[in-house]
Amino acid sequence: MSNKIQTSLRKRKQRIQYRLRKKTWPEQSAPMFAASNIHYEMADRVQGLSYGGIGAIQLLARQTGLAKAIDEKLQLLKRHLPYHESDHVLNIAKNNLCNGDCLEDLERLRNKAAGGILPRSYH
For residue 28, how many other CB atoms are within 10 A of its CB? Predict the structure, then answer.
């Protein structure tokens, strides 16, 4: 494998590892997925995800009051470090919208780098 490809792969892996690093969060007063700054752009050469409409789905959940209703009606967590009930419920629903069949697919999609192909493994 050429040095250019090895360097590119190493940098992608480092970006994913940095994004998934352990973090200590203070308790949150509002859901983490706020959908506050979503906009779409088109470019000639860009790496992107094939599930770009998920931001619009999150915005819809916020504007219709779905996320707020979930947080008010569903009391599962004693502390929100950092996620609220609506974050978890909507994450599972969005997994289904991205062709996810099981919870393992959440991790598969989470680790997928933009522009990369990550095959699904069946157990």
Answer: 14
